[in-house]
Design a protein that fits this description.
By secondary structure, the chain is α+β, with helices and mostly antiparallel strands. The protein is built from seven helices and eight strands, in the order H-E-H-E-E-E-H-E-H-H-H-E-E-H-E.
């Protein structure tokens, strides 16, 4: 992905970091991500003692089992083919509540939703669903409207978050992903 230093100055806690990964399912998720079909995963940027951290939920490529985890920004973007950053249009108190919930053990314990269902009462969540639900719980703001459809089910796509009127674009850098 290359050096991160040039764009890190624009980062703020609570921003959404979107990547185009290179995992087995990245192309599939990118195709479901919305009109542009490029990005495949999202996490919430938080500060840490060792620098920027990204809180996100993902699953093992083979088993589909996973949950919320925190990775360093460099680790989150390792081997990525692109990165975008957007900031939710939240006031300072809303942003602080969102960041506090992201660290809350109950939110950290939510398992990954390999069925990608929005109708399970939040028992399990996929990456975009977790971010949207987190912000909604902290602020009352649903930042992922309108919703996308994938086949016959309603989903929260990457682009539902990334292109929302409720976020401000910060950075977007793309490399040509494999197979294109």
């Amino acid at each position: 992905m290359g050096p991160l230093a040039g764009w890190q100055v624009a980062l703020r806690p609570g921003a959404h970091v979107v990547r185009r990964g290179n995992g087995r399912w990245s192309g599939y998720f990118a195709g479901a991500s919305g009109d542009e079909g490029f990005f495949s995963h999202v996490g919430l940027l938080v500060g840490g003692a060792d620098g920027w951290q990204v809180v996100h939920t993902e699953a093992d490529d083979d088993s589909g089992i996973g949950g919320v985890r925190t990775d360093g920004l460099g680790q989150f973007l390792a081997d990525a083919h692109g990165v975008a950053v957007v900031r939710p249009r939240l006031d300072a108190a809303q942003s602080a509540r969102t960041l506090a919930l992201a660290r809350d053990p109950a939110w950290q314990a939510i398992p990954f939703d390999a069925r990608f269902r929005l109708d399970d009462g939040g028992e399990a969540m996929y990456c975009t669903e977790w971010i949207q639900a987190l912000v909604l719980a902290a602020t009352g703001e649903d930042i992922a409207r309108p919703r996308s459809r994938f086949g016959h089910i309603e989903i929260i796509s990457i682009d539902d978050l990334r292109l929302s009127a409720r976020v401000e674009p910060v950075f977007d850098h793309r490399l040509l992903p494999p197979g294109r």
